User: What shape does this take?
Amino acid sequence: MTINRNKLYSILFIACIAGYIWLYYSIKINLTETNSVEVCLIKHLTSIPCPSCGSTRSVISLTKGNLNEAFNLNPFGLVIALIMLIAPVWIITDLILSNNSLFVFYQKIENTLKKTKYAIPLILLVIINWIWNITKDL
Amino acid sequence: MEAQKVDMFIMSNGKFFEGHQMNMIRERLLALDDSKWAMLSTVQLKDPTTSLIISILAGGLGIDRFMIGDTGLGIGKLLTCGGLGVWSIIDWFMIQKATREKNMQKIQQFLY
Assistant: This one.
């Protein structure tokens, strides 16, 4: 699957829509039940939380305005919320202006992240976050 | 390039590419200059089977996508816990084709 502009935009757009539907669904469930739904395969199989476990709860607490609680649950939630807010707007403006600025930006980011000096610290951050997740017992 | 060399390349690297690409690769290689041979034989190609194993074991963390060089999609998989498990299952079936296409991209720069 070689990525091109339209493929990237449809993947991102579908992912964002799925994310919003998932968010709406989990907020609605939370109103009626006390514990949230857990779908993470890794957590079900191994009972160890994965690096991104708790990000739904983090985004939900962001929508309620608790920035601190969101960060404590999982810092990935902030990244996801940022992507979910920016990506649809960027995609729609690109489609209207028939531009490909997001695709160019994506490729630039991809090439930057492949460099060792950026990749190693980020991998370490993810692992530290994962250890934090496990100790928090999400 | 000599037909013997080309056939040797095809035989030893056939599993890294899609079947429908093999004919085109062979024709391009036959037309290629001999000086490109050294470069061509140093290209690091990814084994589709290895990426399938990694996809099954660690697909939920997006490591398979990181390995074949799709960093952006890998981050997407990592952040969403393998697309809530759905994307990681889809990728068990997609990753071999994706790896072969990445390999094709890698040698494309030498073929033209």
Summary: Chain A has a mean pLDDT of 80. Chain A is about 75% helix and 0% strand. The CA atoms of residues 114 and 120 of chain A lie 9 Å apart. Chain A touches chain B at residues 1-3, 8, 11, 15, 19, 22, 39-42, 50-53, 55, 76, 79-80, 83, 106, 109-110, 113-114, 126 (CB under 8 Å).
